[in-house]
Amino acid sequence: PSTSNPGYRRWIHSMIEDQVxxxxxxxxxxxxxxxxxxxxxxxxxxxxxxxxPARKEAAERGIDVERCRQALLRLYDFMQEAAAGxxxxxxxxxxxxxxxxxxxxxxxxxxxxxxxNKDLDRELYGLVKWxxxxxxxxxxxxxxxxxxxxxxxxxxxxxxxxxxDFVKPITYQHQAGEIWAKELSFFRKTILRDFxxxxxxxxxxxxxxxxxxxxEELVSTGMAPDxxxxxxxxxxxxxxxxxxxxxxxxGVDAPRMRPEVAKCSQDIVYRSVMATYRAGGxxxxxxxxxxxxxxxHLDGVAQALEEL
Length: 308
What we know:
Helix content is 58%, strand content 9%. By secondary structure, the protein is of the alpha/beta class. The chain is globular, with a radius of gyration of 21 Å.
């Protein structure tokens, strides 16, 4: 649903307020995983959000909604042509940049959408502190934020510390190769269509500061705790610069959508916890779902904490 819809927004507010006021909880972690207009375009969808409340809010901020809509339509046409295999004289990436620069209003709408999305995070932080000033409020940080250069640019750590007591970067290590392959597949259908998977992976890994297995091995091996979890934790610790705690989201038996995806193990979990504390993390959150975790794998957490 649209975060600009007042009824939907009030429902989220009321849900959080009810939990904070009426239950003896130790904190709130807000998970906000949404695709922006540009994100949606790259994934092959039609960009939004042009509901009436969103259009009204945009107009109040001085944005020409119709020009933004037309600009996004031009980008949508390009993405559909790229996905259908149309050949471009200058290649897909340069053509994408040309269409984007010719239609800068698309970025105006992207920025507007992003700010409204972050507004919801900020409102919930304020609501929690209004109800219980001592209650910690944190942000669940999508792993797509460190796999997607656009999203990484849009969600700087320092900004998040203004409305969060802690951040929880998702690093589901054994599942991470599958997530990377899925993320890359969206880019390779459109703007990175002219690159082979391993070519694109090597370039993007360099840009994103990742140092993992070659593309053809990633799904079956996952990403290594000593490089992936440690690196993402170190990045977050540097980014928040002491203004928020970093609790790493350690994957324990995260869902595997393909049989060839790497399996979780006690050793992977153990090394992930150790890597978190070596990198300066303040704690761990075991995720995504206790009901799906093998207790023998959780023993890896106990082993690491006992040693530490």
